[in-house]
Amino acid sequence: MQSLIRVLPLLAAVNALVPAPRPNAAVDVEPRGLGTSAEIYVYNHWSQQLTVTGTDNQHMNVSPPATFKVGPNAVSQKYAIEANGWVPVQSSFKLNLKPEGGSQSTVNVDIGVAPWRTGFSLNSKNPAGQVGVLLAPAKILEAGRDFDFYFLSGPGSFTSFVQGQIDQKLPETLAKVKGKKFVVNSDIEITVNDIVKPVVKATYVNLGNGPNGLLVDAIANVDGEAQLTITFKGVIQKTNIKVKGLSALVTADAKLGASIDLFVKRFQASVDSIDISGDILVDIIGVLYPVLAPVLKLPYKLASIVNTSENAKVVSYINTAIKAIANGDSPIIKLGQDARRVVA
């Protein structure tokens, strides 16, 4: 568990350093001629059957099923949904999740691409910590689904515990990062001057049985600002990165022993906005990871690439960093075909 607590702030810090210029609200997008689409997955972490009902469908071309059941400790099949692309209004629905013999949780979901929104809210009467949601961008404005919607339902007994640990350990972790210099190569150095008003909230944490002992499913939300000094080919620039509405879903195997070893199996993310001052950090990303260069002005598209075409690499990077930290080494950042050691 202590390893999990250490990893969550690490993931927050890593994602806070994902660069993108200020989103341009005036970006023109060619109409697709059809509605925003998503695939729904429901994870049941209860030892009882879970009944799922879709209600209050508004302006949906394809609505969620009226009702379906998910067996104990199982995942549903995928269900395709689609907003009505021809009606100039917001599409939405509700998903209700009720374990056998337990209380119901309700999620209110909006679905759409700008000017409409894709987002969710939880019913105020839901049992605390018993439902987790991530609306992960997939193939935005391309052939195929636009989003993957993940709904997780379970006892939630570890959510408040993990949040308490984050609140306790986060200041100490950030204090160790502050003032550290990361040398990527002879041309690139990044110094973390400060992390301002960070908020890391564990919204859902479930511990189940995994092949090596435990299976961890966790969703965390992050807001904050990183103040950096960047050196790129001798040019020095101060840069601020503000991240709002970053959410990450992590699934990991945990092996119990003298210490807890974690191996991340799944990482999916969404982000509302990334605001970056200055241009050197953007230039660095364009050199080191050119596949991201065309989408830096679109945070949702950046998230879609992380969740799809680049996902295997991202998961590999996270596991490499976890292993290096567990061994007391500096993590190795692999970018493109290169491998560069980051030293603090």
UniProtKB/TrEMBL annotation:
Extent of the signal sequence: 1-16
Protein name in UniProt: Lipid-binding serum glycoprotein N-terminal domain-containing protein
Keywords in alphabetical order: Signal
